[in-house]
Amino acid sequence: MNNQQTHSNPETNYPASPKPTVMTKAQKKTMPPVTVKTSKRDKVSRTIPLIDLSNFSQRRAEISEKLWDAATNYGFFQLVHHGIPTKDIDFAFIQASRFFDLPESEKTKFPLRAARNSGWESRTQVRSSTGRADEKESYQVTPPRMKGLWPKESQLPGFKKQLLAFENSCWFLSMQLMSCFAEKLGLDKDFFTHAHNPEQSDYQSTLRLLHYYASDKTNEDIKQTKSNEKPPTPTQQWWAGAHTDYDCLTLLFQRNHQRGLEICCEQTKETQIWAPVTPDEGLITCNIGDMLMRWSDDKLHSTPHRVVMPEGNGPFGPRQSMAFFCQANSRQTIYGPEGKYPPISAKDYLKHHRASNLVASKAT
User: Fold this and answer.
1) What is the CATH number of the domain that holds 204?
2) Does residue 356 sit within a domain?
3) What residue numbers bound the domain in which 321 lies?
């Protein structure tokens, strides 16, 4: 689930294995105890924490403990009773569909601008974990950087207004969660709210609309590849290659029955074991990003994840999701309470990650 593109991308790429492999106990570097079930096909399913945010003010201490446990042990969690109405999420998905349904000749009028992380792109995000571009298109909304990148009101009535309102709801929820992490880190409750101030010109949190492409290819098509053609590589099974987000916190909205998201629940230098996250429109799936991991002196964990295509013989339909990437304003200094890492501005932090991502992609 990630927040900028190849050259402007708040995601760190992570090595991936083409198939999950169960290691011996001696080989495993295992995360804290989780609910794990291995089927006959070596598929792994895992329950990540589900956190109820109802009566947030009254239950703040209890919720903070649960968030902290999830973020330190898993790096992923899901939210219920989170305060964003289902109808608002549905309307945002409708707006996303309206945009992606535009002819490509229209969408190219709103091109992704690298320095702004705003606008539309298609198949440009190359992961070093796969060496291939993700099979998706996306439209990034970073409010202060959208000049010339909004469709006209006559073209998509209500599009801009509704997406900005939804982005604001995501920001508000993110700040609720981040205030809990701030207090657990010994910081002022509003510390991260000030660090992600949307009223400032250097605000750079981003709402990303995502459309993963359908495929009409079948396994038989792959088997019948001509001998003089380069055979398909294992990376073709992924909509989005393995990576970690390098923001502070990601909120992911998924559609029912549109599976694909997997998280890495065990890893060694040689292999990883991946677990699917079942989509549920009533839940928001959240994960810690690299920026907050650094800010917390590595107390909070940024967990690798990917988006896989369906298995089996036959064509499959598209997948749609939306992600809000909560990342500090560019002039904000990132420095943990214990000083494990030297101070760095959010701008330079992302610049460093972009450079690392480019080098890794070229080396693949």
Assistant:
1) 2.60.120.330
2) no
3) 11-219+234-328
Number of independent structural domains in the chain: 1
Task: Enumerate the β-bridge partners of residue 253.
Answer: 322
Exposed, middle or buried, 15 (CB in 10 Å: 0-12/13-18/19+)? middle
Q: Is pTM, for the whole model, over 0.85?
A: no
In the structure encoding, which two tokens stand for residue 115, read together? 């320095």
Closest CA to 334 of 322, 323, 325, 343: 343
CB 222 within 8 A of CB 314: no
Sequential pLDDT tens for the chain (364 residues): 544 433 333 333 333 333 333 333 333 333 333 333 333 333 344 468 999 999 999 999 999 999 999 999 999 999 999 999 999 999 999 999 999 999 999 999 999 987 788 999 998 766 656 667 678 899 999 999 999 999 999 999 999 999 999 999 999 999 999 999 999 999 999 999 999 999 999 999 999 999 988 876 544 444 443 334 343 444 447 677 777 888 999 999 999 888 788 888 877 667 778 888 888 888 999 999 999 999 999 999 999 988 887 776 566 788 899 999 999 999 999 999 999 999 999 999 988 876 665 444 444 4
Q: Choose among 118, 127, 123, 125: nearest CA to 137.
A: 123
